[in-house]
Amino acid sequence: MDVSGLNFTTFYVHSEGKKWENETSLNIFGYSNKKLIYPGKIGKYKFFIKNDEDSDVKYSIIFGSSTNLNVKMLYRFRSESDYLAGLHNEWIALDNIDSDYYSNKKSTDCYILEWKFVDNYDLDSGFYTLNVKVVNR
After folding, report:
1. Bigger pLDDT: 85 or 28?
2. What are the C-alpha distances in Å from 96 to residues 46, 55, 120?
3. 3-state secondary structure of 129
4. DSSP state, 40?
5. Are 93 and 63 in contact (CB under 8 A)?
6. What is the chain's mean pLDDT, rounded?
7. Residues forming beta bridges with residue 36, ordered by sequence position
8. pTM over the 0.90 mark
9. Do the Cβ atoms of 120 and 72 come closer than 8 Å?
10. What is the pLDDT of residue 121?
11. What pLDDT is attached to residue 89?
């Protein structure tokens, strides 16, 4: 996770009880130390963006991935109340999620990234890395 351009004292991202720093490694695809994904697996990851500034803040959330596998991952991205990318019954590619958001002064925004590993018959062991970048605009 990359949080470029953020003032970590007044505008920051956190999840699982810890504040994200530049290049923070998070366990998005598993529980505890088990970071396993496999065809058919579905999961979600919740994170928060806290704005303690005295003014509203515009920021971008940018998603990307890297892998050495022939893997088809699909996603949905939502706040606690609404889908922002994808729908309840619609999964989309990661590159269709990036967007700009606004955070009201003295507020916290909650986001949930839902993911789904679509069946793939040509699977071998390897790596899949999800990158999330939050940039203060």
Report:
1. 85
2. 19, 29, 21
3. strand
4. T
5. no
6. 78
7. none
8. no
9. yes
10. 56
11. 92
Q: What is the pLDDT of residue 125?
A: 63
CB atoms within 10 A of CB 20: 22
Q: Does position 63 have pLDDT exceeding 80, yes or no?
A: yes
Cα 133 from chain centroid (whole Å): 8
> Residue 61 burial (CB < 10 Å; 0-12/13-18/19+)?
buried
- Phi and psi torsions of 96, nearest 5°: -100, 10
The CA distances from residue 129 to 26, 29, 66, 69, 78, in Å, are: 10, 9, 5, 11, 21
Closest residue by Cα to residue 63 from 127, 137, 126, 1: 1
3-class SS of residue 96: helix
Half-sphere exposure of 1 (CA within 13 A, CB side): 20
pLDDT tens digit string along 9-28?
A: 566 777 777 777 666 666 67
Structure tokens at 61: 């959330």
